[in-house]
Design a protein that fits this description.
Length: 269
């Protein structure tokens, strides 16, 4: 039977130091399998923190290009099972046809959503959505404001420390949504799905994540037209290459006060 799904669990371990040991209580994030079924067929089994499941699945569908808009998903049913969580989705006919076409080129096999498993050619790795067109302008003071408040908006991270977070902020630095997960891809998917379900505009602000920006996170952001993405850890060289192709502003913090911008596109003031 799966443990109670609260997002975290307190466990006792033995702390060893200088030849002595004593019991210590730690708060640990939960991780459980989530099966995503589309029109009766299993599409993927992911591992994620069991919070904001509907948002996670919606964000995954949008950021992986399974659907182009939220209205292509006709229904979502989340069921807790003894082994994990099962999510049944129903796509409209046109979206289902698109999915079947994608599946001829790709088999997504039980991973944590890194965005590359199952691709059949190098060209598919480098495929990008159309370039982002955005008039977004963000003052540097607003960026620093979000960086300063980042950890304060993450209750699970404050309990467990070992989870990733993703936030979306407006151009004035107001954080309007935060999502967390043991997986950095999952945290971003939850954020994208949460914004979509609440009908909030992903093109009118920027994302900041607690992890590095690797290529697959840039690709997820590009698919939903997020114009600016920042991280507290350095991006990979392929992430920079893909951000440049998609005309996405990409930067990483050096400490809390300094930002290294790799691709600007004139959005940071």
């Amino acid at each position: 039977m799966i443990e109670r799904l609260s997002g975290y669990r307190s466990l006792t371990g033995q702390f060893y130091k200088s030849g002595n040991s004593e019991p210590v209580d730690w708060c640990l994030p939960q991780e459980c399998p989530i099966a995503i079924n589309i029109n009766g067929e299993c599409h993927a089994v992911m591992l994620a923190t069991p919070l904001n499941i509907e948002e996670f699945v919606v964000g995954f569908c949008l950021s992986e290009g399974l659907v182009t808009t939220l209205d292509k998903i006709k229904s979502i049913c989340v069921k807790e099972k003894s082994e994990g969580i099962e999510v049944d989705l129903k796509f409209e006919a046109q979206a289902l046809e698109r999915l079947h076409l994608m599946n001829r080129r790709r088999t997504l096999a039980g991973t944590s959503g890194c965005g590359i498993c199952g691709l059949t050619s190098f060209s598919q790795v480098l495929e990008m959505a159309s370039p982002i067109k955005s008039k977004l302008k963000v003052p540097m003071d607003a960026v620093l404001k979000v960086r300063e408040q980042l950890e304060d908006t993450m209750p699970l991270r404050q309990k467990c420390f070992s989870v990733h977070g993703a936030v979306f902020a407006k151009s004035d630095g107001e954080i309007i949504m935060t999502r967390e997960d043991v997986g950095r891809h999952n945290a971003l998917d939850k954020l994208i799905g949460g914004m979509a379900l609440q009908k909030l505009d992903l093109t009118n602000g920027f994302v900041m994540v607690t992890s590095r920006f690797a290529y697959e996170l840039v690709k997820k952001c590009a698919r939903v037209k997020i114009p600016m993405a920042l991280s507290i850890s350095a991006p990979t060289s392929m992430a920079i290459r893909m951000a440049q192709k998609s005309k996405m502003t990409l930067g990483a913090f050096s400490g809390k006060k300094g930002l290294v911008v790799f691709i600007d596109e004139g959005r940071i003031l």
